[in-house]
Specification:
This protein is mostly helical. It is built from three helices and two strands; from the N terminus they run E-E-H-H-H. It has a single domain, classed as Fe(II) trafficking protein YggX (YggX-like), CATH 1.10.3880.10. A hairpin with a 6-residue loop joins strand 1 and strand 2. The protein starts with a strand and ends in a 21-residue tail after the last helix.
C-alpha cells in the first residue's frame, strides 16, 4: 500500500513520493507535503523555467531562483522570496 499525503499543491489527499527527492530539510519537506503527481508536474515546469529563462545552474543566483520557483510552484511555506515573489511565466502565449 502506498503512502498518501495531503498535497500542498493539489489541496487533496494523493499518493506521496517513494523517498525524499533531495537530501536534507527541503527533501524531507517535499516528501511530507507534496504528492508524486505534483512533483512530476514540477519536474516538467522546472525544465521549462531553466530553458525559457536561460538559467545557468552553475551560477548560485540561478540555482536560488530555481529553488524559489519550486517552493512557489509546490505551495510550500517558508522562504519563497516573500509575498511579492511570483512564479515565472513559461510557454508561448496563445
Amino acid at each position: 500500500m502506498s503512502r498518501t499525503v495531503i498535497c500542498s499543491r493539489l489541496k487533496r489527499e494523493a499518493p506521496g513520493l517513494e523517498a525524499p527527492p533531495f537530501p536534507g530539510k527541503i527533501g524531507q519537506e517535499i516528501f511530507e507535503k507534496v504528492s508524486a503527481e505534483a512533483f512530476d508536474e514540477w519536474k516538467e515546469m522546472q525544465t521549462k523555467i531553466i530553458n525559457e529563462h536561460r538559467l545557468d545552474l552553475s551560477e548560485r543566483k540561478d540555482r536560488e531562483t530555481l529553488m524559489k520557483q519550486m517552493r512557489l510552484f509546490l505551495h510550500l511555506d517558508g522562504d519563497a522570496g516573500g509575498q511579492s515573489a511570483k512564479l515565472l511565466r513559461v510557454g508561448t502565449p496563445t
